[in-house]
Design goal:
Length: 70
């Protein structure tokens, strides 16, 4: 399997937003970093900004992104 390359960078986030991300990550059994990556990937996918080959496929262990949106 091809190894994914990642790029590190510093992200400044206010305390309230970070607390919300950390709580969401805990609810979804993800790391905070993993949750931020998922949020960004989902936003790019929904905006059709990801190339088809870069869109992650659903795996048996992944949490569905098709939850009820109110």
């Amino acid at each position: 399997m091809a190894e994914k390359k990642t790029k590190s960078f510093i992200l400044r986030v206010d305390n309230d937003t970070m607390s919300a991300i950390e709580a969401w990550a805990a609810d979804e059994f993800r790391s905070t970093n993993g949750q931020i990556q998922w949020i960004i990937t989902e936003a790019l996918r929904k905006a059709k900004r990801l190339p088809k080959k870069s869109q992650p496929s659903q795996t048996a262990g992944s949490v569905s992104s098709e939850k009820s949106e109110s």
